[in-house]
Amino acid sequence: MVNQSTIRDVARVAGVSVSTVSRVFTAPQRFRDETRQKVYAAAEQLNYAPNRMAAALTTGRTGNIGLIVPNLANPLFPEMVKAAQHQSRRQNLAALLGDSDDDADDEEKLIRALSKDVDGFLLFSSLLREEQIAEVGVLRPTVFVNRRVDGYPCVLVDALQGMRQLTQYLSNLGHTGLLYLAGPANSWAANDRLEALLQAGAETGLQVDVSAPNRPGFESGNLAAEQLVRAPLPSAVVCFNDVMALGVTARLLQSGVRVPEQVSVVGWGGTQLAGYTTPAVTTLAVPLGELGSRAVDQLLLDHACPTQQDPGPVSLGVTLVPRATTGRARVS
């Protein structure tokens, strides 16, 4: 049956004006929680949904935001995206999702294609080059997640704080050095993570050897482990992300290398998958859900106060989660 409720019905049930209902749906960040909840509750009771196309014509707002990720197959991103979608719905926004397949040019194409249909973008671990940001960053308000870009709202994690926890932990276990399996060369997060580990290793007195850049996948971890078993084994391998750590662990075990008795393995991200495997992977856990939800909040804040001075990035902490893939350094 077609819903016959109108915006006037919602205003009557919520006890507010018609204009308030309209503005709650188009600019919810401008209202107190109490007002928003009254309007949303009345709309739900009446099974009323605003006509987004009509609203876009009158307000210039679509009620949509765009979420662009480099690779949905990476378990880091679904957890962040899910949290961003939930936070968007709480603000009566719809989230449109795009996957750039780890390609900066495809990311730019997605942004251009979606820019007419969204009010802003959340770019997760963006691979855009600086000249591309200059071109597309002006199309819509944009928040960068896991990448710092001057002049834009950013939601980051404190990589140095996390790596300091890790190097101290490994040092306490008797490790004097480690091999770091680096991430993609074109990734800001990969470079930030590497610099943090090098600094933390120097502070702790750990020797940090670094591999060539890798694609951030299970296969890269597998291939790296195949090469490791042909040479003297490092006592610890730290990976760019959890997926690579899973690939390393699986191949080492298949090759007869005991983990962690011979080699300790550490990932990054704190994805659920890393804790479900056997052995469960030690990881530096990023608050994935908070990254997604805080990014939506930053986008709404940017909408509400577009001329405000840049307050600097939001930086979230990282937590070391020791599991079965790390242990005391082997005795030579």
From TrEMBL:
It comes from the Bacteria. One of its GO terms (molecular function) is DNA binding. InterPro entries: HTH_LacI, LacI/GalR-like_sensor, Lambda_DNA-bd_dom_sf, Peripla_BP_I. Residues 5-59 form the HTH lacI-type domain. Keywords: DNA-binding, Transcription, Transcription regulation. SUPFAM superfamilies: lambda repressor-like DNA-binding domains (SSF47413), Periplasmic binding protein-like I (SSF53822). It holds the Pfam family Peripla_BP_3. PROSITE patterns: HTH_LACI_2. Signal peptide: none annotated. This is LacI family DNA-binding transcriptional regulator.
